[in-house]
Amino acid sequence: MSRLVPHPLLSALLLLMWLALTRVSLGQLVLGALVALVAGWAMARLRPARPRLRRASAIPRLLGLVAWDILRSNAAVAWLILTDGRHGRRRSGFLRVPLRLRDPSALAVLAIIVTATPGTAWLEYDAETGVLLLHVFDLVDESQWRDLIQTRYESLLMEIFE
Amino acid sequence: MSGTILALALGFAQVALGLAGGLAVLTILRGPRAQDRVLGLDTFYVTGMLLFLVTGLRSGSLFFFEAACVIGVTGFVATVALAKFLLRGEVIE
Amino acid sequence: MTHLDAVPLWVALPAALLLVLGSGLTLLGAFGLARLQSFYDRLHAPTLGTSWGTAGIVLASVLLFSWLEGRPVLQELLIGVFVMLTTPVTLMLLGRASLHRDRAEGSAAVPPAGNARPADRGTAGADGARGAATPPAWP
What we know:
heterotrimer, A: mainly alpha, 6 helices, 3 strands, globular, C: mainly alpha, 68% helix, elongated, transmembrane helix (chain C)
């Protein structure tokens, strides 16, 4: 099984994507399954280090948290743009956050979360020291933002991946 | 009734996205630095892609979706290539 | 406009709201892009359009087309997923490129390279963990 379908999740998602792009019929199902299988083999050749999920049950919690946070910060940033940054009193700045997270896929997920959220931008990650450099749009309280990254996302990601 | 509401919403969306595209073009032209222009281009193609989706809704045809996909992929590759060029091409090497 | 008249109100109202929300947020993002002063501030503006701006329009499109076609039309969601995964890559690369250029010019407005290490000379993807910061790995 693992030789025939080396990346079951990837293949399943590809098949789903194929069916979403075309109409659902037996022919498309067979064709999509074929494409998904070949892509799985190609992936196995390309990237032997696969992400390990330790506790996948926490993923829906993470997704909900992220969707809600993105919605909230959308409103916050939109309001800041509309009011001209509290009439010129908004202060933005750089922020260094030391991370305990080391797993590459967990870091990739954290990068997507941080960048997709309006108001924070991921600039640089130093792999040796594990320090992340962020730019924050509305830097009222540095420790509050550091806390947001470290307790809200990092601990949950460590629970899922490490 | 619902036709009017939808027509109004679609009209608003088209005007808003058109304006957003115009502002992105303004950023591309004005700069001041190369990275600002690339960021403007990135915004411009996302806006164009959304405009195609809205136009598809207005005409009721699913074919605009394919065009939006193509714009998304080419725009992404273009921005990544430009950012990569800024990262290693110009100032130092 | 004939195909839009047949849509019932309970589909039309949420779709219209989502459309207005999505396009309004995208417009605000572009407005911020043109208006804000420094590059690092501007970096935040387009994420309005790529997060809930795109999500609103994509969800409205899914709602309307699913009704019009009489089957669930989910392909628009793929665009949402695609934008969600690609925007971090472009914005992160742009941010690093800008940081790199500012440091090379000796600008005082940006923080120096971390912990007295020499400035990163664009060796992205050379080592594993930094490679993770570039393209998101597929599951």
